[in-house]
Amino acid sequence: MVNMASIMWKHESGKKFRQDICPRKDYLSKMFYTSTYICPYCGNGTWLYKANVGDRVMVGTPEGLHTLKSTFLCNECHSLFSAVSGKRLSEGDYYVLTNREDVDLVVDAINEHGISEAELMFMSRFNLI
């Protein structure tokens, strides 16, 4: 597990994440692929890219340590979002990271230690997660 507790995420609630049908499957990197969520920050209808992290990356939050399960990146405003444990982004209760340097560090960690879509499908099929 990668411990990135020194990178502090903000806890926010209230902004709703709009969902829509994704027009295509697009990959930003090996780990990040297009999700159905649209960024609530930049307001220009930008699709968020999703990465499945499992329990491999841990970050700091005002409530303490938070294990990233899945993370969403806006490639326009460079904000990184993760739902509060047990919630969905669409519920509007999430952690956000907006500092570009910190976002780049977390994205690098996810690209190195995350779970690819193929791994996730394999693990789900054989009940390994």
Descriptive notes:
- Strand 4 (33-38) and strand 5 form a beta hairpin.
- The two termini are 16 Å apart.
- This protein has two helices and eight strands.
- The longest helix is centred in the last third of the chain and has 14 residues, at 100-113.
- The protein is α+β, with helices and mostly antiparallel strands.
- It has one domain (2-125).
- 18% of the residues lie in helices and 42% in strands.
- Strands 1, 2, 3, 4, 5, 6, 7 and 8 form an eight-stranded mixed β-sheet that branches.
- The protein has helices spanning 100-113, 117-125, and strands at 2-8, 10-13, 18-19, 33-38, 47-61, 64-74, 80-83, 93-97.
- The model has no long low-confidence stretch (mean pLDDT 75).
- It is globular and about 30 Å long.
What distinguishing features does this structure have?
129 residues; 8-stranded mixed sheet; 2 helices
List the helices and strands and how they pair.
Layout lengths: L1 E7 L1 E4 L4 E2 L13 E6 L8 E15 L2 E11 L5 E4 L9 E5 L2 H14 L3 H9 L4
Parallel strand pairs: 1-5
Antiparallel strand pairs: 2-8, 3-4, 4-5, 5-6, 6-7, 7-8
